[in-house]
TrEMBL record:
Upper lineage: Bacteria, Bacillati, Actinomycetota, Coriobacteriia, Eggerthellales
Matches recorded under NCBIfam families: PRK07231.1
Domain of life: Bacteria
Transmembrane portions of the chain: none
The protein, known as: SDR family oxidoreductase
Family the UniProt entry places it in: Belongs to the short-chain dehydrogenases/reductases (SDR) family.
Entries under InterPro entries matching the protein: NAD(P)-bd_dom_sf (IPR036291), SDR (IPR050259), SDR_fam (IPR002347)
Species of the source: Adlercreutzia wanghongyangiae
Amino acid sequence: MGNRLENKVAIVAASTRGIGRATAELFAKEGAKVVVSGRNEELGVKLVESIKADGGEAMFVRTDVTVPEDMENLVAKTVEQYGTIDILVNNAGGGNSQNFVDYTVKDWNDINDLNGLSVFLGVKNVLPIMMKNGSGSIVNVTSTCVHKATWGSTIYAYAKAGVIAMTKFLATEFAEYGIRVNCVSPGVVNTDIHKEYSAEILNAMIEDIPMKRMGEPIELAYPILFMASDEASYCSGRVLDANGAWAL
């Protein structure tokens, strides 16, 4: 067990699997009281049980990050249980991989809601608490595809680029309250989102990465930990790439 987040209360949105799960586990090992959230209650409860078995502190709140009432409830339950919120990780993301002409208006709305609206709702609900505290750290998970075009990811990249812009504006607007807002930008990571690609496309993407491999979720959790922790106390409005030297 470490102490980089000792006594901090951290919400990790969309944390039942992948990067979010690895982040929740790492935060707990570093001393944070972690709020696990997601739509899959079975996975969420099992993760909390695992964290507690390892000596950590955690709770699960079932949450659809695109539903305003769910995000309000997530924040309310966290404050009810732990009294405050110090860290928010907006980890939700994903989108259909297909030719642009095949996208529908529903695809547009769904992808933008999952990747963009979720960040808006998370930040909007924690800001009053962090402003009152005079401190806070928000980490938004974006994507390398914002500046590295990949097949079938146009709307996803559009939404993630918006998250980066939002991050920079929020960092400027709320710096006077002691609130930092940063991004971590993954490349190709061994999670469910990249399992949607065909083997041919995925192999081509990996071949284009100088390190010649996908990243693992824990390799993104550590950059998120850094940005969330006091070690990054003078970093705000920044994007930290973790992508195996892809798209430099």
